[in-house]
Design a protein that fits this description.
The chain is an alpha+beta fold and about 375 residues long. The chain is elongated. It has helices at about 1-5, 10-40, 50-75, 100-120, 125-135, 135-150, 155-180, 185-210, 215-220, 225; strands spanning about 250-265, 265-275, 280-290, 295-305, 315-325, 325-330, 340-345, 355-360. The chain folds into 2 domains: about 1-225, no CATH class; about 225-360, Lipocalin. The longest helix has 30 residues, at about 10-40.
């Protein structure tokens, strides 16, 4: 059974921790920025002394630094994508989505500078410390773009709404601050209010034509080795036998076999079977990684090929995630749009036999 081979792998766990910590980190940075804006504006809850609000501001910042460390470490330890430790410090050197990962690096470097100068505040001139501290206002929008552009979950409705809610919280705080900035001229204040109020619409529009579109992973700079393991051509694999036509979403049963092979430290796990069971439609999944001393495989890459019955075309694409016996993939046939496919496997009569359900362009039952 496939879960016996990959369930002990820490790769998917690291990947989920990296994604989850990144989303929580965005929320903490948002809360910290909003608190900074309202504190500078003189706001304080009637029942809270000012030092309490400032203490909350500092503690939220400290928690954000801890989450940032977890986010960076889990990304670097996860073998599925090779970001590289240098990319955590030097912007735009990662082979994985260099622009969007680079924005995250810039945000990290700014936050590191703010933390370092805060620790050395007693030894710095107040003007210098204040100038560096103001960089926090620059770090947050860069982190937001990093989250939307790099995040593999942006296409999920709840995640995108969360990201836009973070943007809305900051925009609301800035609007209130600008509205009370009586020292500004009416014309300048009005222009600032209009520009800030237009930001959510601009981000939503950009997201609609970019990160929310299918194929964004490739356009964002995901290496071919991650998009499709073993393609070797430097481009996304194209189907054999001519272009494929989009298939209507369906859910069907699957039966197949599991085999493993090893070449040095690299192991290959292949799941091959038919869907619908008994038909000529075939599905082959290939996972590559390293066998672990404690059992199981640390999956580093994978690809899948689906060949519909009575059709010369095939659908090919990368494995997105492996979580126990659940394999998520994104397949594309020719010029047709890519489609999300999920295979949920169960054990068969012996360790080499599997069965399960294939969700082609449909939601997995129980996920809503």
């Amino acid at each position: 059974m496939i879960s016996a081979v990959v369930a002990t792998s820490s790769s998917s766990d690291l990947w989920y921790v990296a994604r989850g910590s990144g989303l929580v980190l965005l929320g903490l940075l948002t809360a910290n920025l909003v608190l900074g804006i309202v504190i500078q504006g003189g706001w304080c809850p009637p029942s809270w002394p000012r030092f309490v609000v400032q203490a909350v501001h500092r503690n939220v910042a400290l928690l954000a630094v801890i989450l940032l460390a977890i986010h960076v470490i889990t990304i670097e330890l996860d073998p599925f994508v090779a970001v590289g430790w240098s990319a955590a410090v030097v912007p735009f050197v990662s082979s994985y989505r260099p622009l969007w990962v680079g924005l995250g690096t810039i945000s990290l470097d700014i936050l590191a500078a703010v933390v370092a100068t805060s620790l050395l505040r007693r030894h710095l001139r107040p003007t210098w410390w204040r100038l560096v501290h103001w960089l926090t206002y620059l770090s947050w929008p860069i982190a937001l773009l990093h989250s939307i552009g790099t995040g593999t979950d942006t296409h999920l409705g709840a995640v995108f709404i969360y990201e836009i809610a973070c943007l809305g919280a900051v925009v609301a705080a800035v609007l209130v601050r600008l509205a009370r900035a009586t020292q500004l001229s009416p014309g300048l204040r009005r222009a600032g209010l209009i520009a800030v109020a237009a930001l959510p619409a601009a981000v939503i529009l950009w997201s609609a034509v970019g990160p929310l579109q299918r194929g964004w992973a490739q356009r964002a700079g995901t290496p071919t080795s991650v998009l499709s393991s073993g393609s070797g051509a430097g481009a996304r694999p194209q189907p054999a036998g001519g272009p494929a036509t989009p298939l209507a979403p369906f859910t069907t049963s699957f039966v197949g076999t599991v085999s493993t092979s090893q070449s040095g430290a690299l192991a290959t796990l292949t799941v091959q079977g038919q869907a619908p069971a008994g038909s000529r439609s075939s599905l082959q999944i290939t996972l590559q990684g390293q066998l672990q001393a404690t059992g199981g495989m640390a999956v580093s890459s994978g690809s899948a090929v689906y060949a519909p019955a009575n059709s010369p075309a095939t659908y090919k694409g990368p494995i997105l995630a492996v979580n126990g016996s659940v394999v998520e993939m994104e397949l594309q046939g020719g010029t047709s749009s890519s489609v999300r496919v999920t295979l949920v496997l169960e054990g068969g009569a012996d360790a080499t036999q599997v069965s399960g359900e294939l969700f082609f362009g449909t939601a997995v039952r129980g996920e809503g």
